[in-house]
Amino acid sequence: MTAVTSSALAGVADGAKRSRPRSASRRRQTLAWVLVAPALVLAVVFFVVPMVLLVGMSFSNWPLLGKVSVAGVANYAQAFQDTAFWRSLGFSLLFTVVSVPLGMAASYAAATMVRGEGRLVSFVRTAFFMPVVIGFTAAAYMANVLLVPGTGVINVLLKSTGLTNGDTAWFTSPDTAFWAVIVLTVWKSMGVAMILLMAGMQAVPTEVIEAAKIDGAGWWRREGSVVFPLVRRQFALCMLLAVSGSILVFDQFYVLTKGGPSGSTTTTVMYTYQQSFVRYDLGYGAALSMILTVIILVIAIVQLRALRSTGQEDER
Amino acid sequence: MSATDVTRRTTAGSRREASRASRPEGPDAPDRTDLPGATPPRRRRVHASGVAYVVVGTVLALLFIAPVLYILFRSFLPADADARGIGFESIATLTLRNYTKVFDPSVDLRQNIVNSFAVAISVAVLVAIVSTLAAYALSKIRFRGSTIVFVLLLAPLVVPFQGLLTPLSIVLGKLGLLDSLAGVVLVLVTLQLPFSVFVMRNTFDGIPSELEDAAAIDGAGTGRILRSVMLPLAWPGLVTTALFGFMAGWNDLLSSVTFLSTDSKYTLPLALSSISTSFKIPGVPVIDPGLLTAVACVATVPVVVLFLALQRYYTRGLIGGSIK
Amino acid sequence: MKTSTIRRSAIAAAALTIAALGLAGCSSSGTADSGGAAKGTVTLWQRDGGVDLTDQVKAYEQANPDVKVKLSTIQADQYLTKLANSARAGSVPDLVSYDIVNTPLLATQGLLADVTDKVQGLSNKGDLAPAGVEIGTLDGKNYALPVALTGSQMFWNKSLFTKAGLDPTKPPTSLAEVKAAAEKIQALGGGVTGFSTLGGVGQAWTGFPSSWAKSGSVLTAAGKSQKAEFTSDNLVGMVDWYQDMWKSGLMQKTDQPNQDPGNVGQENALNGKVGIVFGGANTLTAKKADFGSAVGIPGVDGGSGSFLGGDEIGMTAGAKNADGAWSLMKWLVSSKKAAEIDLSQGWIAPDLTVAKSLATDDWSKDIVDTLAIGKLPKSIAYNAVINDPNGPWAQQSQKVIFQGADAKTALASAEKQANSLIEQAYSQVGQ
């Protein structure tokens, strides 16, 4: 790369004497491609190629060890009739519909709390962000230790406040398992959205806030009518990531419930995983992955479109 | 010579400006300029509305870190602490036994820890370099196909990674990278690209091109521009990218589980999850919670320490140019 | 070849033969040496949760200093997938030790090497647990051998029995009697539970034996016309009994999502809080003095059955060091040293004669006798049909046991699903 760069640099330096249009010279174009090359190579080798293979697998009959054969659209046809798959998708959507609003609300509220300065604010900000850093596996095992029926500290606390009898086996019933995982997820993921929203809030010019104050607007009014509209873009972006992340949720349920009891907490990725790695029907698992990808892509595009149109509205 | 002087002056000047803007200044700080994405936003002083904020804030903050603190505490308690009930009395039973066991050759997590470090650092460094180069091009150079490249680099966000496990195994197998830490690193870097490229592009977007142009007019080539102009200003974004890359490498489970099959190459989360053989109370086939929490802490502490140390960077790094 | 090289090879061969004969003398099973001399590196995969062969391997290396064994522990639920991926990538381990129920799948799909000749040459082949050898057989050819076995048994806490007025030397002989005893023990109070099962998704490991104690099986013969037989009276009866136990509160509460008593159950059992336990001997070995053991598990109407579990070992078709692999495999299934180490860990060596000779107390003797009656369903779709926590057997049986569904209808639906899964599995491998 150095050789190319230096010749590119030489060329650029020449052009630099004149006003340098950013969309200019071919040398600059080449430079751009050189700079994105490493990332592109990685993306192609470790993403595009596997994706192509995945598509191929989805149209094949792919047993664990034996010969692979073409299956046409049989896997897809099977998918559309597979009630368990659609049920798992429903569960993932349910999870998304619950965890995203909760998470966004929590992140927003936290952002309002930590957008100032001061030692205390710094401490609170750090505390809120810390769970992000822990891996989901470690967090899930921590959850396990904390929620052991009888002796787990959370159960002990609940018992002492009289809310439960302290013996709840959290992961043996779908409802308690669901809420336990929701709490874990919100706790763990709130930090990133919080920081992004906080950034947006900090960029709101004080004159606007002051003006609203002078007009007699209380905190809620200011927040809703002044601040929120100005951070809408960050909010929408955070939500985009949160939604696709929630639909693709896997780790927590994999470690804590393994999709049980009786498959009631099986998320759609988990179901796909089981087709490939428990039933060893890899072609079918591939088809399911493809269907899932398309669904998320559509949702993402819809959200991006919505974002762009609101962005065009308040282009300052 | 004059070129470099000007460059240095320009850089220093903008750096001073930037840092001045971000230092807490209260109501006297300069208003946000109209330059698109010019300076990092100044902090608005929120008068912590007294007691209410202090109480609520502290309580919530403590609640948030309580689970981790508890796990930390539990890791210094013996195996049967749960049965005896955990409270302030337990402080008398504090012990290092769990940690000595963790580092004891029979459980031997030392190799796993080394492996995790190797993977985490490699991912951090690699992803920082690769994403910075690509993001610079995407942000500062308008070239044909840049949108496609950007979309391609971000595409992994919509794909369930689990679905790609088998195809990736095939690819790695063909490259001879199956059952190798290098293979795991490369896969993780690729998966970190969406986030990293996004952050770095935002960061570069937040650096006005005028700085670049000024330096270029003075004859500086792209390499020097990158080094002397961009890098200092993009530093927060860079550190953020590296930090999140480290986290991804350190916390990864699925890639290690799928692609590694030699004990000596296993990473820490893998060891943590194969608790059925490692973390038994000797002689009794039941999992030792003291040992388990100790391992969980060992798996968590390095990232937490790192993130605490680099706090000021990632805050600014994530903000980057998202004010745009 | 130069003369000096020939001479050197001859001397080496002689030395090796002498060494081999000497080694054969060490192992009391006196197996005839067949095949080439073992040397080099042998790669062995074992599953996490199965027998841990670390100590056995160390002992083997001491006895065979020319061979170095590289042992890797693979997470149980990734095992087959990783193996398949490695096979497709062209680099498989030499030996694989894995969950015995997966044997048909591996054998059918050509992963394992045909070792019929070698097995036929084994002097102790008649002493190996029959069901363990049978499951490794396909079309009359041997592909795998059992390496460490366990069978599900009934255990009871002797002191709790005495306290409840029951005779600790006269255990229940049918499920109905188990319930009666559990009731008496639970009545003792003090946080004591009458009954618990230790593991086995959907109570396959500990539940199936009660249904096939007298006769019958859960799946018909392996092959493309295999069918599930879930609606037999015995199986329905078994599931109904568990439902009753759960409803009556006599069964240990669980902390695992698939209703396995899991950790909590084990801990309670070991702490003397459970009256009767269905499980594997290796989970209770540490406290075996407190427990009485039976041969197998009582049937629905009497008789005993047991589910043969443990690990099977096979040589892969692409093994790089076939001689070394066979040498290790043979040692693991034949040598007395291996059997001793197995026993100390709570597993039983596959050679039942050797195992019996090492069984010094009733505890060990009962395990060996249990293995003799141990059975297991043989199917390439075993994982999908029975093991999978979201498969038809686990889901429907749990619905009956824990949610009070009607056994006949639930199991009928499970049977239908299972049959379609089995059909799919066989059609996938082109049968």
User: What is the second-level CATH architecture of the largest domain in chain A?
Assistant: Orthogonal Bundle
CA gyration radius of chain C, whole angstroms = 23 Å
Number of strands of chain A: 2
- Helical residue percent band of chain A: over 70%
Strand arrangement in the largest pleated sheet of chain A: 1-2
Termini Cα gap of chain A: 41 Å
Q: What is the overall pLDDT average of chain A?
A: 82
Q: Sum up the overall morphology of chain A in one term.
A: globular
CATH level-4 homologous superfamily of the largest domain in chain A: MetI-like
Let me know the largest β-sheet of chain A: 2 strands, antiparallel
Encode the helix/strand succession of chain A as letters: HHEEHHHHHHHHHHHH
> How helix-rich are the residues of chain C, as a percent range?
40-55%
Give the strand content of chain C.
15-25%
Identify the biggest protein-protein contact and residues per side.
Answer: A-B, 103 and 110 residues
Broad CATH class of the largest domain in chain A? Mainly Alpha
Write the CATH fold name of the largest domain in chain C.
D-Maltodextrin-Binding Protein, domain 2
Topology of helices and strands:
The complex is a heterotrimer of chains A (316), B (324) and C (431).
Chain A: H1 2-17, H2 26-58, E1 60-61, E2 69-70, H3 74-81, H4 83-114, H5 119-133, H6 136-146, H7 153-160, H8 174-202, H9 206-214, H10 219-230, H11 232-247, H12 251-256, H13 268-277, H14 282-313
Helix pairs in contact in A: 1-2, 2-14, 3-14, 4-5, 4-8, 4-11, 4-13, 5-8, 11-14, 13-14
Chain B: H1 2-22, H2 50-75, H3 81-84, H4 97-102, H5 110-140, H6 146-154, H7 161-174, H8 181-205, H9 209-217, H10 222-251, H11 254-259, H12 268-273, H13 275-278, E1 280-281, E2 284-287, H14 289-309, H15 311-319
Antiparallel strand pairs in B: 1-2
Helix pairs in contact in B: 1-9, 1-10, 2-14, 5-8, 5-10, 8-10, 9-10, 10-14, 10-15
Chain C: H1 3-26, E1 40-47, H2 54-63, E2 67-74, H3 79-89, E3 95-99, H4 103-108, H5 116-120, H6 130-135, E4 137-138, E5 141-142, E6 144-157, H7 158-163, H8 175-186, E7 193-197, H9 204-212, H10 233-247, H11 262-270, E8 274-280, H12 281-284, E9 291-293, E10 297-298, E11 304-315, H13 322-334, H14 336-344, H15 352-358, H16 362-373, E12 374-375, H17 382-387, H18 392-403, H19 407-428
Parallel strand pairs in C: 1-2, 1-3, 7-8, 11-12
Antiparallel strand pairs in C: 3-11, 4-5, 6-8, 6-9, 6-11, 10-11
Helix pairs in contact in C: 2-14, 9-10, 10-18, 15-16, 18-19
